[in-house]
Each structure stands twice: as structure tokens, then as C-alpha cells.
Amino acid sequence: MTIVRDDPFAPDPEFAELYASLPDATDLWPWKDLAQQARPPVLYLGIGTGRLAVPLHAAGIQLVGVDSHPGMLERLKPRLPDTELVQSRIETMNLGRQFDLIMVPSNILCFIERLRAAASHLAADGTIAFELTNPYWLQAGASSGVRVQAFDSNGARFQVDYQLGDGRIITQEAEIPLVWPDDVETWLARGAGLKLGRMFGRPGAELETAPSFYVLAGR
């Protein structure tokens, strides 16, 4: 079993290899709808190897992509040669401009320093749309292929297995702070001076039991 970690201070080459091996997304909800309603370009934080960005680009969405992992961007550049891609940690990101929509389709804004940096790039009437891991789901034991190794009200450590097409299993190990749905409004305001616009889960899923939930916030 190969174990990889998402470490922006010491990027793991095999972490980029894992994401490059995954198929592109076919379900673009809710990102496509949000992006189509925003003034271009859309700032995409954690753009990775493009499994979501490439289909969004094909749908006509103009993106500016940021990722801290050089291996991710190396794989993405040939796929999106006309897209502006920036290698930077979110905490130290300074793009010198603001965006109508900032999208983060993963849990990486659970760190308050990243949320603040993202908010500094938000237009006055803009929206940050991001996904967070659901603490209630982890507390209940998560699901098949996800092993919760440590959990308390503040954070969790867990592993996620990915079965690749060649039969290999690669395991991603993560340790994250938890943002509880009940606390999101206060967390946004105190952490980054943001106001909650909407919080929701996938259609037909209970917010308390889904693996993740979505937050739309603005100034």
C-alpha cells in the first residue's frame, strides 16, 4: 500500500501522480452553475491536475488556477495551455486582483489562514464557494474506503483509499481541523469577516450524514 499526503511545504510527487490517475469529473454540480452566473474569470484554488477544471473549461468557464504542488501544475499545463496557472500556497497568495467568484471544490479552506487569504481576493459583491468535510459523517465512522484514525470536536485524522485502473491501491492520509455546520456562520465572521450566504448539501442528501457540505459566503 502506498501512502501519500497533501503537504504544501514538502509536495509529495506521488500525490500528484494519484490525482493525475483519476478520471475527469462528469458531475460538475454545483461548480458549473455557480461559475456560469459569475463574471469571468473564476479563481479556482487547489486546481490540481484538472479533473474538474478541464471539464469546466470545456463548458466555457474561464479560470485562473492556483495550486501549491508543482507536480500537479506540470500535469495540468498541457491540458489547459491557455489558462493562467499560478504555483502558490494559498496562505501567501497575492494575485494583485479580485474575483467575482472564488471556488474551492475540496476541504482546503478548513484552515482559517487560507480562508483569510482567499477572502482578500474577493470582489466587494463577490462569492467564495467552497466544500468542507462533514464532521458528523466522520463522527459516524465515514464510509467504505475511509478509515477514521483519530477524532475529536476540533480535528480528525483519517485515510482514504483510491483503487486505480491498474489495480494499485493508493491511500491518502489527512489530518484536518473540523468546521461544524452549526458553527459556520460564526467561523466565517470571526475568521475572515465574511457573511454566510447559503449552506447546503447535495440534492436529496441529509446535511448531517453527507461526506461534505457546501458554503457560499461574501463580504
Keywords:
219 residues; alpha/beta; Rossmann fold; 7-stranded mixed beta sheet; 4-stranded mixed beta sheet; 7 helices; 11 strands
Structure report:
This protein has 219 residues and is an alpha/beta fold. The protein has a single domain, classed as 3-Layer(aba) Sandwich (Rossmann fold). Helices cover 23% and strands 33% of the residues. Helix 5 links the parallel strand 5 (99-104) and strand 6 (122-133). 34% of the residues are buried.
- The name of the CATH architecture is 3-Layer(aba) Sandwich
Gyration radius over CA: 17 Å
Helix percent reads 10-25%
What sort of overall outline do the alpha carbons produce when their principal axes are compared? globular
Termini separation? 44 Å
Provide a count of the helices.
7
Low-confidence blocks of residues: none
So, the CATH homologous superfamily?
Vaccinia Virus protein VP39
